[in-house]
């Protein structure tokens, strides 16, 4: 692994979540001391599907807490009806050049006229296309479980899972933005490229 990537690595910390977010099944991780700071302010768009809001909200809440701990406090939240609508919103937001990153969150389950695997694959591919076309990093916490039932047990399980996914998305977002900030600085200085 190159030195630039090693410098950007930061441990994930679940200590950034309040006690109310932790259930007995949530694994405990020791707190991380300090996250690196950015040379320039960062602004992130968080695009959330409203289907199964009670589950997906857990991702947004944990993401916002974890990203703030990583010195990104400018986060705008956008809601869309379902996961299928996320890529178009992500593309429009990326083209504004207002955001340094976009994070997508949704839960795709069986039902409706589309198979959930088709929707999930389509959304992920489209998000990758947005990222490559615009050079604005796009992160996905769009999940599709093999079997999801509208029971309290499944909803609790996926709420806990989305808490973890929110933290992971924040870590990936912050680390990528730090890496890109360094890389763009090196390119501008003629060191890389």
From TrEMBL:
Substrates-to-products reaction catalysed: (2S)-2-hydroxy-3-oxobutyl phosphate + 5-amino-6-(D-ribitylamino)uracil = 6,7-dimethyl-8-(1-D-ribityl)lumazine + phosphate + 2 H2O + H(+)
A Pfam family annotated for this UniProt entry: DMRL_synthase
One of the record's GO molecular function terms: 6,7-dimethyl-8-ribityllumazine synthase activity
Single biological process term from Gene Ontology: riboflavin biosynthetic process
Pathway given in the UniProt record: Cofactor biosynthesis; riboflavin biosynthesis; riboflavin from 2-hydroxy-3-oxobutyl phosphate and 5-amino-6-(D-ribitylamino)uracil: step 1/2
Known function: Catalyzes the formation of 6,7-dimethyl-8-ribityllumazine by condensation of 5-amino-6-(D-ribitylamino)uracil with 3,4-dihydroxy-2-butanone 4-phosphate. This is the penultimate step in the biosynthesis of riboflavin.
Cited HAMAP family: Lumazine_synth
Family the entry assigns: Belongs to the DMRL synthase family.
Name of protein: 6,7-dimethyl-8-ribityllumazine synthase
Species name: Bradyrhizobium macuxiense
Gene this chain is encoded by: ribH
